[in-house]
Amino acid sequence: MSVVKNNNKFQKAYIYYLYDRKQNRIYVGSSYTRFKKRLYDHKYDLKAYLGLATNTQPRGYRTSFDIVIQEDYESGILEKYPCNSKKELFFRESEWIL
Fold this sequence. Notes:
Elements: E1 14-20, E2 25-31, H1 35-49, H2 65-68, E3 73-80, H3 86-97
Antiparallel strand pairs: 1-2, 1-3
C-alpha cells in the first residue's frame, strides 16, 4: 500500500510585509518558502542588482530594494494562506496591497 502525500508547496504559503519606519513605506509580498529564506532572498537580490554578488545573473530593480537597503526595517507575516496555486496566492497578495 502506498501513501499519497500532499506535496503542494502552496499549502505553506503566506503573505508578508517589509515596513520602512523612516519613510513610512510598506512592501507586501507572498511566498511559500521559509520566511527567513525569503528575507535573505530579498537581500541577495539587492546585492546582485548592485553588482556585488559573485557568480550570479544580474537582477532588475524591485521595489523591495528601497526598503531592504536600509537594514532598519520591520518585517513579518500578515497571514498564513494555504492555497493551491501561484494564481490564488497572487490574488490574495493583491487584496492586501489594495
